[in-house]
Design brief:
With 190 residues, this protein is an all-alpha fold. It is built from 13 helices and no strands. Helix 5 packs antiparallel against helix 6.
Length: 190
Amino acid sequence: MIGAALFLSLMVASEDGAQCQYDRPAMLALELQAFDQDMNGGWRTLESKGCAAEAADLIRDWRKRHGSVGPANSLLSWHEGQLRADAGECGDAITLFEAGRHPAADDLKWGWNLYVDGSIAFLKHDRPGLETARSKLAALPQPEELKNAVGADGKPRAVRWPMNLRVLDSFLRCWGQTYKAAYRCPTAGA
């Protein structure tokens, strides 16, 4: 006869496993846009269920199946890295974040690589490195093309600048917490 506590733990483990199940062949067959950029589809359906490790494995496997997808390679590496960091796999996340860098010449005015630097510094518990990346990112002037940005509807759209600064600020506010908690760290007074 199984004790009540053991039965309950087996039931919870079974429910968690079922929660992270998905139609693997269908997911791997998706085109890039549907797989990575559909905010309610693709790998994000697993993430939304709390299945970060499974979503990361799915991205890895999708990348292996589809090979190079040009500039989107770095974005897929980045998303897999974020999921690995959420799952506590920081060494793998750092490697993937490094692969998510943009060519330096293409990134001069955008600051993506500074965001990468800050994120890696957070995972390495390097607060001075995070503070340096944050300061450099905050100092970037807004590119001209963003000053008069318009949305898909043709109406003016405000663009938060510098991009991703709020994430580095969250890492600083919630220093010492997990990547997942710090990434979602509430702003002061919220």
